[in-house]
Write a structure and sequence with these properties.
mainly alpha
């Protein structure tokens, strides 16, 4: 599953030749970090998909009598779970391949946004947004 997921992401990279992209793909087999991390992540993904995309909707279809409730429970279980897992797969791809130069050229430093240097206080976040919006508008915000 990791091979299929990574190959599609590597194929659409704008930088690099086929040989470079194929070399990155082979890191899945050569690098213990990539192999073990991918194995654990996709094992967890398969378990979650099985639960939320198969077991819960199947249980709703088999054991609930009202058609509207069956459809609602199935849709509420499947759609967000699948979307979040697809997003998490891409984020994990960026995380696991972030040390490689080809990925850094395409996406910058993908995991730099996860640093603790980012403000976590809501007041700091609001001030940062206000200052950046003011800078974009070309006006100065008075300091408080």
């Amino acid at each position: 599953m990791a091979g299929l997921s990574y190959s599609s992401k590597l194929a659409v990279l704008g930088n690099g030749s086929f040989r470079q992209k194929f070399g990155l793909f082979l890191e899945l087999l050569r690098s213990p970090r990539v192999l073990l991390g991918s194995w654990l992540f996709f094992l967890a993904r398969i378990i979650l998909e099985t639960l939320f995309v198969a077991v819960i909707p199947l249980g709703a279809l088999l054991y609930l009598d009202q058609a509207a409730l069956r459809i609602l429970l199935s849709c509420v279980s499947i759609t967000p779970t699948y979307a979040y897992l697809k997003m998490a797969s891409f984020k994990f791809f960026l995380f696991i391949y972030s040390p490689y130069q080809l990925i850094q050229q395409e996406f910058g430093q993908p995991c730099s946004g996860l640093s603790s240097a980012a403000p976590t206080d809501p007041g700091q976040l609001l001030a940062a947004r206000t200052n950046s919006a003011a800078g974009a508008a070309g006006t100065q915000q008075p300091e408080s």
